């Protein structure tokens, strides 16, 4: 991948994020949810017809997923015309399928779904769509475009690009630098996308991943694989850790090993990571945002769809089919800007 292509992809992602921000701020249009004519003077934030939204997501077994759920609930509470029905979080695909079927039977207006497994939930989502209930797919993508009216994604590839670009800038001219990567669950497409973006960005500046381990997005997993990584590599210049939740274990292993010759970049944007970056008290000096607001954006879009409104500040009418959010880098210089959206690990 060339440097110019990398920059183009980051610009597109930033534009998509800006569009979502415009939506949440409210706007002037009253066209249909699948198209319509913009009309000046209509406030999307103003109360409209009551909207019943069904929301289902995985079990909140780590900080980012907990933040996803709480942000979605908080977003729904902003609107007096929204009734949010929240299914119990689960990592059982069959149970989540039954939750979607309950939403269909209850004839909710829109379903916002963060699937425990995108492929496994695809048919249930298609069933909802065929029943006339729009589905908003969050974070983990379905295997068919027919399964969702709107897809909202974090930019996993862009996370890798952002982390790699930051490391390239820090290690400029050091062609022999040793770069390590601590991934999440290797079988997940999101992990594969993050690693691919990271490798592409490093390649642009003549670097590569010299050592790589994969954890499981848990503190214990992060600590175990990092201990192995450090033992096998007596010299490291930079580390990218994909996930700030598992980063607690990563930093613990680094502390136990007494290593400090390198700097580290995290991923996701946890509150404890941002506070550490601000304090400058560990090797962690940056993290890449993976928005925990995706489901909240889904709630806001679900309301607009059900009320046949348009997304704000766009020339085109209706609601986009696909939104990919930006993956900015948080450093000591800009951490105060991002602290309000940091999630508790």
Automatic annotation (TrEMBL):
<dbReference type="Pfam" id="PF13407">
    <property type="entry name" value="Peripla_BP_4"/>
</dbReference>
<dbReference type="InterPro" id="IPR028082">
    <property type="entry name" value="Peripla_BP_I"/>
</dbReference>
<dbReference type="InterPro" id="IPR025997">
    <property type="entry name" value="SBP_2_dom"/>
</dbReference>
<protein>
    <submittedName>
        <fullName>Ribose transport system substrate-binding protein</fullName>
    </submittedName>
</protein>
<comment type="similarity">
    <text>Belongs to the bacterial solute-binding protein 2 family.</text>
</comment>
<dbReference type="GO" id="GO:0030313">
    <property type="term" value="C:cell envelope"/>
</dbReference>
<feature type="signal peptide">
    <location>
        <begin position="1"/>
        <end position="25"/>
    </location>
</feature>
<keyword id="KW-0732">Signal</keyword>
<dbReference type="GO" id="GO:0030246">
    <property type="term" value="F:carbohydrate binding"/>
</dbReference>
<feature type="domain" description="Periplasmic binding protein">
    <location>
        <begin position="53"/>
        <end position="309"/>
    </location>
</feature>
